[in-house]
From TrEMBL:
The keyword Cell membrane applies. It holds the Pfam family BPD_transp_1. Residues 56-236 form the ABC transmembrane type-1 domain. It is a multi-pass membrane protein. It comes from Bacillus lumedeiriae. This is ABC transporter permease. Gene3D superfamilies: MetI-like. Keywords: Cell membrane, Membrane, Transmembrane, Transmembrane helix, Transport. The chain crosses the membrane at residues 58-83, 90-116, 122-141, 185-205, 217-239. It is found in: Cell membrane.
Length: 250
């Protein structure tokens, strides 16, 4: 009951936003540019077969592969930097600088390199998502209590034991924070890659409908993209809550 009450303000705000959107779209009588929510849902139902069975799987494949690579790459780099100050000094500025380059400007280059295959979109997704995972995990590994570390080493623990039993647990909340940011960004990365060069996918479908001036059909795949981001975020949150029960009990 408490959770339901906690969600009530957000639900009311969303309902008010949708009502205003519906009224404004119908009042301006320009539904081909700004379709009302009811029109988007109607178009989503009308296009459910190509969207759900052709374009949604293509986008999901990009997101899942990109996230898997980002998690492995991001955590690996974070661990490497945490155990080697030299590596940290060499890689950290490069990692920060990589986010200063507009990814949308690099996406056409990836299309030239990889063609319209899935890998051009995966690379875009990885470039967007690995950063929050890397930085948050590294910060988590650095946040371990120095007092506990000194105590463990005084009691005969080696670097491996300190890393596994102290640094890894202390970094998990930061790691999950990075992953929660990354899952939402992965949807954006996949959509950007599909917009600039693809043969299937929700982003590709939205771009194709834009050339036909079908506003409702442009918004329909965007609704699915938003739903993917929300579902992935909830999944990560559930995994986080189950694996960090000790934090709540503490």
């Amino acid at each position: 009951m408490r959770k339901v009450k906690g969600m009530l303000p957000a639900a009311l705000l969303i309902a008010a936003f949708l009502f205003i959107w519906e009224a404004a779209a119908r009042g301006m009588n320009m539904m081909f540019i700004l379709p009302p929510p009811t029109g988007v849902l109607s178009k989503l139902w009308e296009l459910k077969e190509p969207l759900l069975f052709e374009h949604l799987p293509a986008t999901l494949a990009i997101i899942i592969i990109g996230l898997a690579i980002s998690i492995l790459l991001g955590t690996g780099i974070a661990v490497w930097m945490s155990i080697s100050p030299t590596v940290e000094k060499a890689l950290y500025p490069i990692i920060i600088s990589s986010q200063m380059i507009p990814i949308i400007a690099l996406a056409p280059i990836f299309v030239l390199w990889f063609g319209y295959s899935i890998w051009s979109k995966v690379v875009v997704t990885v470039l967007i998502t690995f950063f929050p995972i890397t930085v948050n995990t590294y910060d988590g590994l650095q946040s371990g209590s120095k007092e506990l570390k000194e105590l463990m080493m005084t009691m005969g623990a080696g670097k491996k034991e300190v890393f596994i039993k102290l640094l890894v647990p202390s970094s998990l909340p930061h790691f999950y924070s990075g992953v929660k940011v990354a899952v939402t960004l992965s949807v954006i990365g996949a959509a950007i890659g599909e917009w600039l060069g693809a043969q299937a996918g929700l982003g590709y479908f939205s771009r194709r409908m834009m050339t036909q001036f079908d506003g409702a059909a442009v918004f329909a795949p965007i609704v699915l993209l938003s739903a993917i981001g929300i579902v992935l975020f909830i999944i990560v949150k559930i995994i986080e809550n189950r694996s960090l029960k000790w934090r709540k009990s503490g």
